[in-house]
Amino acid sequence: MENFIQYKIFGASQLKLKPDVVPHNFACQPERANNSTDLNRTAFKKLNRKRLLSEILKENNQDSCNIKKPCSNEGSASKLPLSEFSLSEFSPSEHFQSEFSYSDCADSAQNETALFTVSNAESEKENNIPNTQSSFDPEQTTSCASKDLKEVRSIGVQTLKLTKYRSKGITCKPSVKDSNCQTLTETCDKSCLVNIVVEKAQSESASDNYTETSSEVVKTSDSEYKISTSNSENDKIEKNDAKVNVLSVTNYLISMDSKLYLGILPEWLWILNLLQQQTDLPLDHIKLTLQKIRLNDTFTRLGPAFSYSNCQAGRIFNKSVQKLAHLLKTLIYAPSQESVKKLLPIQFRANFSDVYLIIDAFEIQILKPTDPVHQSLTWSEYKKCNTLKYLVAVTCDGMIAYISQGYGGRISDVLLFEKCGITQILPEGCGILADRGFKQIDNILNQFNCKLIRPPSVSSTVKPSKSEVLLTKRIASIRIHVERVIRRIREYKLLEPHASLDLDIMPNIDCAVTIACALINLQKPVIRT
Questions:
Q1: Mutual angle of helices 230-256 and 283-295, in 10-degree steps
Q2: Which of 468, 438, 463, 465 is nearest to 453 (CA)?
């Protein structure tokens, strides 16, 4: 067709044939696919045909038993009374009978006579009829079969037992039972089996001693078959004891090394009781949540350690992490500028006494999202993977004063500083120490009368001067403290650089970061003053 697309899409008035093309489908031609005559037979016709064939076979057996000479009477074995039935309803096709030749019909008649002789012999044995096989002439039966060839051939077609082929949709599974998979029930009684084994042992024994020993062995095995109902109760008690023992072992390990399992120093363990009172959470739920953040262990292992299933452990974490984050975020605060100057380390007092906060960003790898938009928003050119990006600000002595929410790894450091809201906690006239990546935030800080302290820019064409190199070393030596704080954050396995966080835990990752930063503030300072 020349305008097929216009006809289908734009609704052209008529189709146009390409030049030198002869049409082969016409409107008057019937649809061959819809007018097919090869239809499947209904279930009713199949059942009716099966019943008629069974009745015909019964009549043949009765006639063969009462006939002395196969061709003397009209109702011989080769002629069956089917004139009252229409064979057209049962034959698979109209041209099926015409494909058979006369020789095939004769051979089939001879085969049928052989079958009738076998059926006659069996019927005579059952009905005590004297054997008439001596007067049976197979030539006469073939002549009788040739006379009524059409009837015999049609009946033979209907009584053929064709091989059944299993369709592809039916699965072939052997009906085999494995004895190892069969379990004993509590209601089964094995006393009958015991008696059978005793009788068999007594019958096979040759001496009285053997019978006595065998009966004693079988009688003692009677208790093995009878299942006591107290076993189930004992199992429950043992399981409860095992859970209590496992929980006690977990609590013992936490008490021995609380920093390893919870991220809390031993002298700060009393804060768990305070969290329990403020949040109305069980103590085990708090420990499970903190251990998940600290070790990033799977719920299939954390659940049994606290006598819970893996599903229960996941629900407990999702419920507890938000309450703990809401309460522990009060430990993350920006102190006053006077208190910062009082606790200023010696390294800052000479040249950087006006530094209030040191800022930096860190990223956490996540699994690749399914949404293409989320993939592009979380892709980090620096890490070459999908990440979440956080801005952290610490004081000069290493206390975390601010932690932002998570942003996609695509965001730049300047935009992250502008969007996170850290400017709201900055006092006027303070200094912010940052890396070269934050060099464009100078315009933002000028709006709040703040100063940016960063290493001097480096150019590939211009060689840096001696003063610039020395200034870069001084700033790098004091800016390293924020990296040490980030290293403490990375000690929590859930917040590692390549943690590959699951998408199910993504809604609670901000709460986990807040909890980790709050617990870090309870640790010893990074710089000793």
A1: 60
A2: 438
**Mean pLDDT score across all residues of the chain:** 75
Put residue 430 in one of left, alpha, beta given phi > 0 → left and psi -120 to 50 → alpha.
beta
Q: Take residue 28 and report the two structure tokens written for it.
A: 């008057």
d(CA 275, CA 27): 84
Question: Considering Cα of 228, then 229, then 234, then 240, what sign does the dihedral take?
Answer: positive
**Pairing between β-strand 407-408 and β-strand 385-394 as defined by DSSP bridges:** antiparallel
Q: DSSP string covering 420-468, please?
A: TTGGGGPPTT-EEE--GGGGGGHHHHHTTT-EEE-PPP--SSSPPPHHH
Q: Determine whether 168 is exposed, middle or buried from the number of CB atoms within 10 Å of its CB (0-12, 13-18, 19+).
A: exposed
Q: Which residue has the tokens 């934050």?
A: 438
Dist CA 123 CA 65 (whole Å): 6
Is residue 513 within 8 A of residue 381, CB to CB? The reply is: no
| 361 close to 413: Cβ distance less than 8 angstroms | yes
Task: Return the amino acid letter for 55.
Answer: E
Q: Six-digit token pair at 425?
A: 């906690």
Tell me which residue has tokens 């085969």. 111
Supply the pLDDT for residue 31. Answer: 58
| Beta pairing class for 400-403 and 385-394 | antiparallel
pLDDT in tens, 314-334: 999 999 999 999 999 999 999
Collapse the DSSP code of 363 into the 3-class scheme (helix H, G, I; strand E, B; otherwise coil) and give the result: strand
Contact 389, 411 (CB under 8 A): yes
pLDDT band at 199 (very low <50, low <70, confident <90, very high): low
Rounded to whole angstroms, the Cα distance separating 262 from 92 reads 80
Contacts (Cβ under 8 Å, ≥6 apart) of 121: 131, 133
